[in-house]
């Protein structure tokens, strides 16, 4: 954090993307992680999922903290006490997603929201290694909507970041600082879009005897 303060103190134009800190007086442009979780939860609850897992990276990252908060808020609003949440913090990679999925599936999650598309691919691989089918046995949602996700098997449901808009806003803010224009020093959020494809489906109804 001190490095950012030093850059601000020497007058270097600085804009932060997806890393908001109220202690740093610069423009911040961020994906709206609260909205992302609200959209994902609404979609999964609509499919009768009541135990949702969240596979994300380390808690030191602001987007991770916001996703965790957003998941809890959305679940409380839609399911109240009927909802259950499990969270697994690993790393933003295929292997990290696989490890998180093993943890979340062992806790009984019927759907997994992942902090990145790579984690989602790892989660799908881990589910298949346990003999499960996506989305029949477990639903999976990625985050970012990377270019190739529509071509995976099955095509990945993902929360699309508006990278073009975020980039444009960041560059415009930076150019404004360079030219000495008055800058908005708070945070501006860009709403993501849930792109529904083939990795989410209604929760399976248990046929076990009571």
Q: How would you describe this protein?
A:
By secondary structure, the chain is an alpha/beta fold. The longest helix is centred in the middle third of the chain and has 18 residues. The chain has 6 helices and 9 strands. Helix 4 packs across helix 5. It has a 6-stranded mixed sheet with strand order 4-3-5-6-7-9, sandwiched between helices. A 3-stranded parallel sheet has the order 1-2-8, covered by helices on one side. The relative contact order is 0.17. The radius of gyration is 19 Å and the shape is elongated.
Largest sheet entry: 6 strands, mixed
Written as H for each helix and E for each strand, in order along the chain, the element string is HEEHEHEHEHEEHEE
Number of strands: 9
Termini Cα gap: 54 Å
Going across the biggest sheet, name each strand in turn: 4-3-5-6-7-9
Beta percentage is 15-25%
Shape: elongated
Q: What number is the mean pLDDT?
A: 93
What is the percent of helical residues?
A: 25-40%
Compute the number of helices. 6
Unreliable stretches: none
Structural class: alpha/beta
Q: Rg from C-alpha positions?
A: 19 Å
């Amino acid at each position: 954090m001190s490095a950012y303060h030093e850059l601000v103190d020497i007058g270097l134009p600085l804009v932060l993307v997806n890393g908001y800190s109220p202690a740093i007086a610069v423009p911040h442009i961020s994906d709206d992680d609260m909205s992302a979780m609200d959209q994902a939860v609404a979609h999964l609850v609509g499919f009768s999922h009541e135990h949702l897992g969240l596979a994300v990276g380390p808690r030191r990252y602001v987007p991770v903290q916001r996703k965790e908060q957003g998941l809890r808020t959305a679940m409380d609003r839609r399911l109240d006490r009927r909802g259950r949440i499990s969270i697994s913090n690993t790393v933003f990679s295929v292997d990290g997603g696989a490890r998180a999925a093993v943890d979340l599936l062992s806790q009984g999650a019927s759907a997994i929201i992942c902090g990145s598309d790579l984690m989602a691919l790892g989660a799908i691989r881990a589910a298949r290694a346990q003999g499960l089918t996506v989305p029949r046995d477990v639903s999976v949602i990625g985050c970012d909507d990377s270019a190739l996700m529509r071509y995976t098997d099955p095509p990945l449901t993902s929360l699309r970041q508006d990278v073009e808009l975020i980039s444009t806003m960041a560059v415009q803010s930076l150019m404004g600082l360079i030219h000495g224009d008055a800058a908005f020093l708070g945070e501006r959020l860009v709403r993501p879009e849930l792109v529904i494809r083939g990795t989410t489906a209604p929760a399976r109804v248990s046929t076990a005897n009571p």
